[in-house]
Structure formats: structure tokens, C-alpha cells
Amino acid sequence: MEKGLRDEILLRLEKGKKKILAAKRLLDAGFYEDAISRAYYGVFHAAKAALLLIGDDPRSHDGVLHLFGLRFVKPKIFDEKMGVILRKLKEMRETADYNVLAFFSEEEVRSSIREAETFVNEIEKYIKEKLES
Length: 133
Description:
The chain is 80% helix and 0% strand. The chain is an all-alpha fold and 133 residues long. The chain has a single domain (3-132), classed as Four Helix Bundle (Hemerythrin (Met), subunit A) (Up-down Bundle). α2 crosses α3 and α2 (32-53) packs across α4. The longest helix has 27 residues, at 106-132. The radius of gyration is 14 Å and the shape is globular.
């Protein structure tokens, strides 16, 4: 693997981890909609990093969702719950960002951030195993 691609994969993964940290801080400050958005971007960047690792470079959010399901969930590289987390957070982020009547409870946001963190950790483990082999 060329160094530039390896660096991009690791930078995307790191960006995903930072988005999860930002989501936690926003949750603690009471900014629930923004916390949902950051949690989604955490899983988005992690999923994109995993896809880059196998040679896919989707250009859209829908492309990431579709290819993640096709390349990782369908062949059972990752459990189906990973696809569910990605899809759910994408839908929640769209609601949070575009629906002025959106409401998320503190517990709903906290739970979503936990799921996002699990997602990113699973992706990190997968990427590190692949890069070391």
C-alpha cells in the first residue's frame, strides 16, 4: 500500500475519533442536535477509512452507506449492527441538521454516541489488523 493512501486512512480514522470526542463534549454542554451530527461524522469518517483500505472511495454519504453494507456487512466482515448504526446515525443527523422541529432526549443522544464509539473502535481494530498484516 502506498504511503499516501495509508496516511489518508489513518487520518480519516483519527478524524472519526475526534468527532466522537466532540460529540461527547457537545452532549455534556446540552447541544444534543450538534452532538448527533458529530457522532454521525465520527462513524462516517471511520467507515470511509475502512472502505479506502479495500480500494473503494465513495464520493457521497449514500455511497458510504451503500458500499459499507455491500463490502462489510453482507459478507459478514462486520456484524449487521454496524450497518444499522451507520444508517441510524445518518438519518438522525439529517433530522438534527434539517428539521427545525427535531427533538432528541439526552439519553437518546448518549446511547447514540456510545454506539458511534463502538463503531469507530471496531473499525479501528479492523484497520490496524489489516495494516499490520
